[in-house]
């Protein structure tokens, strides 16, 4: 019996996603069938939809799904989940960091940053030399900096905010190639610039810990999420693209659907 599902399909770069009925293929040995209950919209999805990240087309975007496995093949499958960039603030608080400083150009995010644990929130446009100001504010520089924009200027600011030695993690995705040049002096003074993918963690250990932190009220990701019915996909995409919300999650009427 042929099974079908409703999916948001991207057929051409820059074109609107369309809700279409698609055929669910037969399950391979190394696959599972998941009944999706919710899926987050990541900025990577927006970048891919405009061609910034090459993807085959037609394609059903999305990589932050959560649901229930309804069927499985004969081979064990490993699952992973997407992450929320703002979680760095909550993680720093949980890790008992003394100073948690957020640099955010959007004033709508400042109050949220403080409520999640930031001890100081700055606008990058308020300081000519942001790195120097941060070193002065902290008293020598930060031990760690998390750069989630991917812009060369922001990476340079993050590196210059560090103490020596210090570590800057960069994880912001830009459309297309993104060459970045930095002053080698940062590296010679013991500073490190490193890339991060999917949190650089073992999901078998980390995800249960993350769920426990959420359950105990230490990782309130609920405050970062606004839900949209799947039929309101265009509204959700617009809200994410405008920066109006932190994370949109599409929800589904799962009665009789996969």
Automatic annotation (TrEMBL):
Listed cofactors: Zn(2+)
Pfam families given in the database record: ADH_zinc_N
Annotated Gene Ontology cellular component terms: cytosol
GO molecular function: S-(hydroxymethyl)glutathione dehydrogenase [NAD(P)+] activity; zinc ion binding
UniProt keyword annotations, A-Z: Metal-binding, NAD, Zinc
InterPro entries: ADH-like_C, ADH_Zn_CS, ER, GroES-like_sf, NAD(P)-bd_dom_sf
SMART domains assigned to the protein according to its UniProt record, in alphabetical order: PKS_ER
GO term, biological process aspect, one: formaldehyde catabolic process
Keyword Repressor: no
The Enoyl reductase (ER) domain, residue ranges: 14-250
Family under the similarity heading: Belongs to the zinc-containing alcohol dehydrogenase family.
Protein name (database record): Zinc-binding dehydrogenase
UniProt lineage: Bacteria, Bacillati, Actinomycetota, Actinomycetes, Mycobacteriales
